[in-house]
Design a protein that fits this description.
Elements lengths: L1 E5 L2 H18 L4 E4 L6 H12 L9 E4 L1 E3 L10 H8 L11 E2 L8 H14 L5 E4 L21 E4 L2 H7 L12 E4 L2 H5 L3 E6 L5 H9 L17 E6 L7
Parallel strand pairs: 1-10, 2-3, 2-6, 3-5, 6-9, 9-10
Antiparallel strand pairs: 4-8, 7-8
Helix pairs in contact: 1-2
Bound molecules: 2-amino-2-deoxy-6-O-phosphono-alpha-D-glucopyranose (GLP).
The site of 2-amino-2-deoxy-6-O-phosphono-alpha-D-glucopyranose has 14 residues, from α5.
């Protein structure tokens, strides 16, 4: 585990974008595992800026997103597909055929999870997985539990996650109760994992996840044993260490 201390959110975003940019330059057809949430938005902005300057080419890059809410399709502005297009894909030269996100509208969970696992397998795995950190220690939508779920699965969101994510919806009732998410094995098999964390509100969970026990009760803690895990966090997020 490597920790890179950034001064603030912008600095964190530039540091993370540098690592992703290096990955794309070294392997132009790499598989990027991508994440939503407020944490990676600055990273995407920086990558778009370098793309506009002609420094990065995404034409061969393939992507696989971590998760999606069940019941929302890409035209819903709260769906993660919408988020990804709005904050990243629509501003770079990625080939739309190379974008993969779980299909929240597929009601057949078994079929959808298998389809998604097969996609990850057929791509030969993930070269770099970008992650945020949920306030309860979740990664993707792998919520605190008694065991680690290995592959893509349908998850029932915890109340803490519904509370944390309701700020994006008009009313709390609108927050979907279920989601599809890559599992812990999908994430742990990535060649490199890069997490971005910012702000005081994450300081306690950063300490628990990376300086506490490895336990499914804090899903991100499993990253302590990943072979190539980099945490880029700002001073506030590291303030409890
Ligand atoms: C959501 C996503 C996670 C993300 C988390 C934290 O629940 N499923 O992938 O990491 O939110 O979001 P934020 O970066 O806004 O704190």
């Amino acid at each position: 585990m490597r920790i890179i201390e950034a001064k603030n959110y912008d600095h964190m975003s530039r540091q993370a974008a540098n690592i992703i940019s290096a990955q794309v330059i070294l392997k132009p057809d790499c598989v990027l595992g991508l994440a939503t949430g407020s944490s990676p938005i600055g990273t995407y902005k920086q990558l778009i800026d370098w793309y506009n300057k002609g420094d990065i080419d995404f034409s061969l890059v393939r992507t696989v997103n971590l998760d999606e809410y069940c019941g929302l399709d890409g035209s819903n502005d709260q769906s993660y597909r919408y988020f990804m297009h709005n904050n990243f894909f629509d501003h770079i030269n990625i080939n739309p055929d190379n974008i993969n996100i779980p299909d929240g509208k597929n009601e057949n969970a078994e079929e959808e999870c298998k389809r998604y696992n097969d996609i990850i397998k057929s791509m030969g795995g993930i070269d770099l997985q970008l992650l945020g950190l949920g306030p309860n220690g979740h990664i993707g939508f792998n919520e605190p539990a008694d065991f680690f779920s290995m592959d893509t699965h349908k998850v029932s969101l915890t109340d803490a996650t519904i509370q944390a994510n309701k700020r994006f919806f008009e009313k709390e009732e609108d927050v979907p109760r279920f989601a599809y998410t890559m599992g812990i094995r999908n994430i742990m098999q990535a060649e490199r994992v890069l997490m971005v964390v910012s702000g005081k509100s994450k300081a306690k969970v950063v300490k628990e996840a990376f300086f506490g026990d490895v336990t499914p009760k804090v899903p991100a803690s499993i990253l302590q044993v990943h072979k190539n895990f980099t945490l880029v966090a700002d001073e506030e997020a590291l303030s409890e260490l």
